[in-house]
Each structure stands twice: as C-alpha cells, then as structure tokens.
Amino acid sequence: MSDDFVSFLRNNRDILCGDALASAVMRLYRLNYNNAHLAPLPEDYWQTIAQVNGICYDGAEVYGVNSPLKVFKDLITQNQNLHTSHVVVLGENETDWLVFDTGEQKYQLVDKDEESVLYSTETFENAINYILRL
Fold it and tell me: pTM for this one?
C-alpha cells in the first residue's frame, strides 16, 4: 500500500483507522492466524494491517487484528466459523463482503445475498477503495 494512501486514510476526519502495530505484535498475530488454519493471505494485506489496523467509514469496515479498542471486528474471530479453505472475509459493508480468494489470488467484493462476485482486484489498496466506496 502506498504511503500516500495510508496518509489519506489517516488524515481523513471521516475515516476511523486503527493504530499501527509493533512488529512483535504483528508476528504473534500472524502465528495465531496460521494456528487457526485459515487460508493464507498475501503480503500486501499484512503490510497494510501493520500500518492501519482496521478501517471504518460510512457503514463499511475492514477488519482489524485483535484490536484492544474493540472498535474493529477481529479477522480470526470473523472467519473461524466459516469453514472454507479458499476464502477469507476481510471486511464488509451493508451489502457486500470483502474477501480474499486464494484460488483466484484476488481480493473480491461478494454480494452478501446472491454470493456473486461484483468486483475483483489484485491489490488490497484497490479493494479498500471499493469496499469503503472512496
């Protein structure tokens, strides 16, 4: 994720961003994630979450990682009961899920009701833009 985009998120008064994570905290969380046997996530996801641990804007949310503020939903908690080996839910808005599909190796917006793919991209930055409707 570009530094300009992180600055844009942090400097926008309407967007709530979680704090950056210390590298030791991030390593521990990734270990816990791996131990939860969830589908693997790409590096750009982890790099972003280390800089901006959760994002909320206008009814949309990108999940954080075990945020002490409890403002953001936790990635592991949100995915533990899904029982899917190739998709991880990363966030949501009122009508769509933001997921990473490991088979396609793409971030996708999926309609909550119809479960159809509405948008697909290779970068987490583009996916954030789309789910938050920026």
Answer: 0.92
